[in-house]
Amino acid sequence: MAKQQAFKFDVTPYFVLAKPRKDGHWDVSADVSPKGSVDFVGPEGPQHIDFSISNNKFTAIYDPDLAAFVNASGSTSGVTMSVKSPLQNVEASADGGAGSMSATKSANGGIDFAYSQTMTAFAETVRLDDPKSGLKFLYNVKSPHAAVDATGKGMRTKPLLDLLAFIVATDDAAKFKADEAEFKSLLTAALPLWERIDGTYGFKDFVVESPVGKFGATQLNTAVGMDGIAKDGKINYAFKVSGLTIPQQVLPSWSVALLPTDIDLNFGGANIDLDSMAKKTIETLDFSKDPPLPADFGNQISADFLAKTPKAILGHSTIKNGNIEIAMEGEMTFPGKKPDASMTIDVAGYDKIVEALQTAAKTEPEAAQYFPFALAVKGFGKALPDGRLEWVVNAKADGSVTVNGAILKPADAVQDNPIMDPSKATVPDHGSGENDNGGAGAKLKP
Asked: What whole-number distance in Å separates Cα of residue 209 and Cα of residue 218?
């Protein structure tokens, strides 16, 4: 690897102590302060990383049968990292941190685990300098408290360790070809890798200082959850911000009253069949050939994947400030490689948006352009009993688009037009309830 990738890794001596226990487990510990560097050549050119960890302490109990630590805890008094590349330099640091994990035998094989870690005084400075474009930019990220939490179910630690041992021991291409059957067997045994993993990063009093001003949030969370390699897998992402502040000098004055203070976005996918894809790949692998997979194999499994109708999902999400709340959810599939989507949008306080634009339109040309559009959009909305407005949007694979039953764009086969001006579309009579196409807040709750 060093010859091919110009990769270099240096680190100060690091030791781990292990002591056998009467119950067949092992006591494991470490008390070191490692420092080191990494050098490699990336797409942008040479990359150099320096890192150091102060007073890194670790204690754990390891179970060989589970190939996992049944419990572990650790702490540091400080972490620093510096990354230098042709286009940017990054300096990151954190003060004291602590973490812990536990693991138990899973009912369906593998282990179930829980992990948590906290750190204080997180700080990062990023300097961008692109000689080609002339772009120079510097920003700082700060948070007095950051936390990571993760849980996993059915992690296949033992089969993964067996697979790793095989790869480490098989450093010769000829031996790898000769042991192809064993490799495939080990790879299959490691599936589905895990049943489910969920994790969250959280930052308190998060601040980004930039040349255009200071961005901030009292709480910033990002979360991801994913099934393992399954026939009907799911993946979920979430992004949640509370107490959001944005520098007002970068925005038109009329938009300040409309800025969100809280954002909760949830999206992901379902009907994701990675199991068939993985097993077909393992079955087709042939290390006696170069490449080991046929040239058109990528197109084959891509077609198989889409045939299972994977679905992109926008889960119940909200954007709000003191007077306005926008809620939305929907989903999209790709029959015939063309999108087929539906979305429901509810807005509380839509009149506040219209009022703000109407007032600003008297003096702001940009607001004057948006005002008629806001009125047209309101015309498509259905009034719900609690005063909210709702729009049910359907975009079909044939190219047609409807909003609460009103045709915004006909099917391509009938008329291949761009999307119309909403003010020129036919708006259904919501007073009778006919053609409302859902409505009544059936999908969304306030």
From this structure: 15
The candidate with the shortest Cα–Cα distance to 269, out of 327, 315, 223, is: 315
Q: Which residues on neighbouring strands pair with residue 269, listed in sequence order?
A: 235, 312
pLDDT beneath 70: ranges in the chain: 1-5, 413-446
Task: Please state the pTM of the whole predicted model.
Answer: 0.84
What are the CA-CA distances from residue 69 to residues 59, 72, 326 (Å)?
10, 6, 45
CA distance 389 to 403: 13
CA distances from 124 to 1, 143, 222, 387, 398 (A): 31, 9, 18, 45, 48
**What whole-number distance in Å separates Cα of residue 152 and Cα of residue 113?**
5
β 17-20/340-348 pair status: unpaired
- CA 374 – CA 181 distance, rounded (Å): 64
- Convert the pLDDT of each residue in 395-408 to its tens digit: 999 999 999 998 98
Give the CA distances from residue 77 to residues 31, 32, 53, 82, 121, in Å, rounded to whole numbers and listed in that order.
12, 11, 8, 18, 11
Place of tokens 């007032």: 359
Report helix, strand or coil for 255.
helix
CA angle 446, 224, 328 (to 5 degrees): 25
Spatial separation of the C-alpha atoms in residues 324 and 352, rounded to whole Å: 7
User: Rounded to an integer, what distance in angstroms lies between the CA atom of residue 132 and that of residue 154?
Assistant: 49
User: Is the C-alpha dihedral spanning 363, 367, 370, 376 positive or negative?
Assistant: negative
Identity of residue 328: M
Report d(CA 89, CA 136) in Å as an integer. 11
